[in-house]
Amino acid sequence: MRGTVSDDADVIVVGGGPAGSATAFYCAQAGLSVLLLDKATFPRDKVCGDGLTPRATRELALMGVPLREEDGWIRNLGLRVHGGGHTIELPWPELSSYPSYGMARARTSFDHLLLEHARAAGAKVLEGTNVTGPVVDERTGRVVGVTARPAGARGRGVEPTTYRAPVVVAADGVSSRLATAVGREKRDDRPMGVAVRTYFRTPRHDDAWMESHLELWDGEPGRSNLMPGYGWIFALGDGTANVGLGSVSSTAHATKVDYKDLFERWMAHAPAEWEFTPDNQVGPVRGAALPMGFNRKPLYARGLLLVGDAGGMVSPFNGEGIPYAMEAGRVAAQAIADARVRSSAVSRERALLTYSRRMREDLGGYYTLGRTFVKLIENPQVMRICTKYGLPRPLVMKFTLRLLSDCYEPSGGDMVDRVIAGLTKIVPAA
Questions:
Q1: Whether the predicted model's global pTM rises above the 0.70 cut
Q2: Which CATH number fits domain 11-72+104-188+293-370: 3.50.50.60, 3.40.50.2000, 1.10.8.50, 3.40.50.720?
Q3: Which of 72, 176, 283, 301 has CB atoms 3.0–4.6 Å from 310's, for a disulfide?
Q4: Secondary structure of the chain in the HEC alphabet?
């Protein structure tokens, strides 16, 4: 799929997060010329829980990213869950499709690592470059490039630079300026999450478990109002832990909850031995929206692919977006590389359309189940019943862990794997 002489690359990727870096890496590895643009200068911070399930670990391994402890990672054994008066430790399952461990790493260094991995594979990376909009062919309506300015420029006296390519990938986050510019708006009938987090110096920095608190109280635990959402503590192994809370709604409509205030109240009642005090806090409490369940479609049309948060790929079950963003980058690159060798425009378009189909086949059923899950747990009474009576039951929690982590055997496996795989196939795909 060679462009004209005016093309700057075979593919332009906008955004240097996990979605964009994975796409750029795989495209470069396939022999395509890649131009990746990001408004930030790396390393930069990004609001995230920093905890990675085995599904994300697998995607990193497929990219050949070094995953040793001496490379800056901390491994975790599974999920420790608190709720309804119970504390349950759920080890990551032993499966053929995924490793039996997760990991954690601060997003500041994580995203920088992936970006440099893409650069080392051959992608040309332009940091500090703010993409201002798509370039659309007036005759065909196809996106054939982007315009951009230096990130510090406000538009006065700085003419935009035009970059052209036969294919453009929008990996530019939840607001996705590119997707919005071509009329692909977010869907209000898809779940939307909200998360806030900060870091603390704490003795818990080397905890071997990812910890989740399913009950958030607006005051003293058990003697105040139970709020919608959950909290987490993810050890980073460097003297700090990522501490945050999140909530999810079955629709994109904003809630009236002041999450930063709720976070402060949660911290005020944290056990003293955790040392979650203002003196030990590292950085401010920052928040972000989490677009879920393919909340922006189509994932491909007229030369523009949506990858990661731009396509709303965060899991409704657990608020994790990194593994799906990286998987989408891998699948997108395969479609783009396939299209490049096709001899006709019609054939190239068919190849690019396989991206949307494969993502729907792989994740559509799972996201539909996630939407049902969100509708149930956003009812406080249902959540109380689930935590009180569900946590002590091993089979229930085994089933829940597989769903929450999206780590189950797609074929074969045990009874739990077969039930989940069957459900994802019979429900309508998101």
A1: yes
A2: 3.50.50.60
A3: 176
A4: CCCCCCCCCCEEEECCCHHHHHHHHHHHHCCCCEEEECCCCCCCCCCCCCEECHHHHHHHHHHCCCCCHHHCCEEECEEEEEECCEEEEEECCCCCCCCCCEEECCHHHHHHHHHHHHHHHCCEEECCEEEEEEEECCCCCCEEEEEEEECCCCCCCCCCEEEECCEEEECCCCCCHHHHHCCCCCCCCCCEEEEEEEEEECHHHHCCEEEEECCEECCCCCCCCEECCEEEEEECCCCEEEEEEEEEECCCCCCCCCHHHHHHHHHHCCCHHHCCCHHHEEEEEEEEEEEECCCCCCCEECCEEECHHHHCCECCCCCCCHHHHHHHHHHHHHHHHHHHCCCCHHHHHHHHHHHHHHHHHHHHHHHHHHHHHHHHHCCHHHHHHHHHHHCCCHHHHHHHHHHHHCCCCCCCCCHHHHHHHHHHHHCCCC
